[in-house]
Structure formats: structure tokens, C-alpha cells
Amino acid sequence: MIGRTTSETADVQECNMARGRSSARGTAWAIASAFFFSLSSVVGKDLLPALGVSSLLFWRFGLASVVLWAVLLAWSRGDGPNPFDVPRLKLFSLGMVMGVIAMVGFFALERLDASVYIVLVYLYPAFVVIASTALGKPLKAPTVIALVIITVGVALTVPEVFGGVGTISPFGALLAVGQAVLFAAYMILQHRIVPESVDGVVNAGWTTLGAAAVMAPLALGAGLNRPHGAHMLLEVGLFALIPTVAATTCFFRALGHIAPGIMAMIMTLEVALAIAWSALFLGEHVRSIQVLGAAVVIAGVMIAQRASAAAEATVPAGV
């Protein structure tokens, strides 16, 4: 196969820039999303036992939706995008799927040791890459190398797995793998059916609204638990703002620039960052093998980002 000439490569880069796509910007948004998602281990540490799954997710997505729609309506009165001039049913439906994905994850965590859950759910980058390849995206060697390195790194961050974790719930494992499959499918659907013109804030607004619509009847039917006390109210508010409003907005903006497979691999930085926060803010002991695992994840992400930059220079946007 004859390689591209410098002129052809420049034409592809110009085409991608004209469509507003940039690997560098996408990587920056993805890293920001991983950063905000990773803080959920700090700001939401005590919420699940106190509120339960359905109530916690109702408050998380409900409050996030209120904040995002307040921003969108105010922004649209100026020079911001019209949040209604989008495929509303698609975005709302995808938001409902996101609500189901989050709920499946929490139910898995109730049945599994956290270390087992992390290893299983972070199979989703592999599922994204496999599905993207099946749908016609060429599989390049750097992508495979990055994926293997990241998977090894994630496993090293949870050394408890190697020392034995007792009996593993088959149903819990099924839920964790199911969440990984669902999230992989969700990322690919987002990339394929949502127009590139839809702003990340708009997408996040419809997504949280759809997720809240799923959780509302479940939370009310099970008996809605309300946060009590100033500390818990603050924690719920931060959980809605940081790993939901900020994280999802960055997530959707990143997907507008980079392929889902690369995006999924960059998002594994969440594991490395969560280890740092557990040591800095929660006073937890971090083992040297976990630090090594975090470093391996970062190395894999760097390879993935380089693969994304190379693809941007050689493949037209949308391929």
C-alpha cells in the first residue's frame, strides 16, 4: 500500500480542522473527564450506604440535570446553542441508557469486591476496540499495544485480585461485565448517531435528563431517601456537580474529537487518579505495585494518544 504524500496528509488534517476535530483537544477533554470522574471516590465516599442505589442516582442525575438546563437556557439567550435544535429523542434515549448503565454498576459493586469490579468493568476499552474493528475501523498495532499495556496496568492497581478475594458472585461478575459491554455500546452509539454539531453541554443536559427520568420512578417506588445534614447535602451537591456535570460535559466534548476506542483507553486514567486521591484526601495506604500499575496505565494512555494523533494525520474525520 502506497503511503500518503505530505500534501495528502495536510489535506486530511485541514479537513479534520474544518470539521472542528482535533486529537489534541479531544485528548485534553478526555483527560479532564477522567479527572472529574475519578473524584467520585472522594466526594461520594459515604453516599451509597446512606442513600441506596436508586436514591443516590436520582439525586445525582436530577440535580445535575437542573444545573445543566439552567446553564443551557441562560446560554441560549446569548450566543450559545439552542438545546432544542438537536435530535432530542436520540439524546434523551441515550441518557436513559446511561442511567441503566450507572445502576447496573452500583448493583455489581454491592455483590463484588471492589478490586474484582474494577478489573471486570475496565474491560470496556477492549470491547470498544473490538466492536469498532467489527464495524470497519482498521485495527492498528499501536492501538493493540496500548490496550494490552493499559489492561495490565489496571490489573496491577488492584493487587488484591492476585492475593485472592474469596468467593466471587457469578451474578455480580455478570453485572460488571454487562456494564462494561453496555458502556462500550453506548460510546459507539454516541459516536455514530449523534451529530458532531451537538455541543457537549447540550448532550450532557439531555443525558442527565434521560438518566433522571429512569431513576425517578425507581427511587420513588423504593422510597426516596433524602440527604440529611449540611455535610451530606454538600456531598450530594458535589457528587452532582463534579463527577456528573463537569465529567459528562468533558466526556461528550472529547467524543466529538477522538474515536471511541482511543477515548475509552484515555478514560482509564480515572483508575490512576483515584489512587492518588485515596492517598492525598482519604489517608489510605498505597502499595508500590499500585503506583507501578498507575504508571503503566499512564504509559499506555500516552501510546494511545500518539496513535490518535497519527490517525488524525492519515484518516479523514468520521472514518
Task: Write structural notes for this entry.
The chain is built from 16 helices and no strands. The chain is mostly helical and 319 residues long. The chain has one domain (40-311). Helix 9 runs antiparallel to helix 16 (288-314). The radius of gyration is 20 Å and the shape is globular. Mean pLDDT is 89; it is low at 1-18.
Structure, briefly:
This protein has 319 residues and is mostly helical. The chain contains 16 helices and no strands.
SSE blueprint:
Blueprint: H1 6-18, H2 23-38, H3 40-43, H4 47-51, H5 53-76, H6 88-111, H7 114-121, H8 124-134, H9 141-156, H10 160-163, H11 170-193, H12 200-222, H13 230-255, H14 260-267, H15 269-280, H16 288-314
Helix pairs in contact: 2-13, 2-15, 5-6, 5-12, 5-13, 6-11, 6-12, 7-11, 8-11, 8-14, 9-16, 12-13, 15-16
